[in-house]
Specification:
Number of strands: 6
Order of helices and strands: EHEHEHEHEHHHHEH
Structural class: alpha/beta
Distance between the termini: 23 Å
CATH topology of the largest domain: Rossmann fold
CATH architecture of the largest domain: 3-Layer(aba) Sandwich
Strand content: 5-15%
């Protein structure tokens, strides 16, 4: 029998973490982050990691697991995630993969060999994928506001600290949206407002690419404004054996 797995996907800023935490009020579940940047230690403000309070509501994994000078890829994600899934299932809980990195989810579901595209045509897990959707303009407004909050909360200072600790500006983590633009600002290659606008534009473009990727995955889309509650109910009914 295949292991059961729930996946919550969607673009950056759409509300995936909030949705998963709402589910955790009713289900015995633990969250595995499918985010290519949240894995890094010391990258906090620009990655929107779960707060201490949120982590207390529901356990989160694959966050803060490697140093900022290391690299991380889909193979690493699958290695960590498979081990964590087994541990969660051994505790009688439901593993829930939450994130916007569709490649990571596909690599896990279809057992990528990393030498050819897919090792198998059928998923190796008994899974359900729910994808959050929002009107594009509303999402872009949310993204712009989120970037402003990151700047207010000290993103510039966070990047300065990383550089002062010896993290190379060319390191993999420093190529992330939000970090590379602030590096350019600190090198006087652009002013702060231009860097902020580039972060917003880059994040909006990234969100668009995420949506495109998820459209090619076998999942159920739902509108966060009109179908939130009914989707929560649907998932709870589907995973009744994990009700608290």
């Amino acid at each position: 029998m295949k292991q059961q797995l729930l996946l919550i996907g969607g673009s950056t800023g759409v509300g995936k973490s909030k949705f998963a935490l709402e589910l955790s009020k009713s289900l015995k579940m633990e969250i595995i982050s499918a985010d290519s940047i949240q894995v890094y230690k010391d990258l906090n403000i620009g990655t929107s990691k779960p707060s201490t309070e949120e982590s207390q509501i529901c356990p989160h994994y694959l966050i803060n697991i490697i140093d900022a000078n290391q690299t991380f890829n889909a193979f690493d994600f699958v290695t960590y995630a498979k081990r964590t899934i087994d541990e969660i299932i051994s505790r009688g809980n439901l593993p829930v993969i939450v994130g916007g990195t569709g490649l990571y989810m596909e690599a896990l579901l279809y057992a990528y060999s990393f030498q050819k595209e897919k090792q198998t045509k059928s998923a190796v897990y008994d899974y359900s994928l729910y994808i959050l959707n929002e009107d594009r303009e509303e999402l872009y407004t949310r993204i712009n506001t989120r970037v402003d909050i990151m700047i207010k909360n000290g993103l510039v200072e966070e990047v300065k600290k990383l550089l002062s600790q010896g993290i190379d500006e060319k390191a993999q983590c420093m190529q992330a949206i939000g970090y590379k633009e602030i590096v350019s600002y600190l090198k006087n290659e652009m002013d702060l407002q231009s860097a902020i606008e580039k972060i917003k534009q880059g994040t909006r473009n990234y969100a668009k690419r995420q949506v495109t990727w998820f459209k090619h995955m076998d999942g159920k889309w739902f509108d966060i404004h009109t179908e939130w509650k009914q989707t929560i109910t649907e998932i709870i009914n589907k995973y009744k054996q994990f009700i608290k």
